[in-house]
Amino acid sequence: MPSRFTTCRGALVLALFTALGLGGCITPPESASVASSNTHAVMQVFKPRGSVQCGDRGAAPEAMRAELERIGVRVTSARCASDGRMYPAVCGGATGEINLFEIDAADAERARSLGFAPLSELRGEAESVPCR
After folding, report:
1. What is the DSSP string of 37-103?
2. Residues 39-78 pLDDT 10s
3. For the chain, what are the domain ranges?
4. Dihedral sign (CA 92, 116, 113, 75)
């Protein structure tokens, strides 16, 4: 049975390797490599809600999620967000509210066909906000 010192030293070495970016050099256990082969790459896409100041709140994330799923896009999460830009306060003006989704990267073109864009194309910095 290893001593407490040996166990702590091993954990310290692993933490040091990880902090230095060398953690990838350690071979994962066989179970970890099997699990990773079953996962799908995900990406974030967004679409403006269509909300306007002093008026319509636009489409809820649930409605857009249903739209994506109808054409076979696998959605792993959906949330409300802001596009991170500033807008003048005027009734009828834009709000910058968007819906943000994590989808399987293989479904990106299907999502684009419905007007969703990769988050990397957003002019601003998305920030999750409570849905209203």
Report:
1. HT---EEEEEEE---BTTS-----HHHHHHHHHHTT--EEEEEEEE-S------TT-B--EEEEEEE
2. 678 999 999 999 999 999 999 999 999 999 999 999 999 9
3. 4-37, 42-128
4. negative
Residue 67 to residues 47, 62, 117, 125, Cα–Cα distance (Å): 12, 9, 14, 25
Question: What span, in angstroms and rounded, lies between the C-alpha atoms of 89 and 101?
Answer: 27
Query: Token digits for 94?
Result: 């834009």
Query: Is-contact 80 61, C-beta < 8 A?
Result: yes
Q: Which two tokens stand for residue 121?
A: 């194309």
User: For residue 102, which amino acid is it?
Assistant: E
Q: Dmax over Cα atoms in the chain, in whole Å? A: 71
Q: If you search the block for the tokens 């007007």, which residue do you land on?
A: 115
CATH number belonging to domain 42-128: 3.30.70
The closest of 107, 102, 106 to 46, measured between CA atoms, is 102
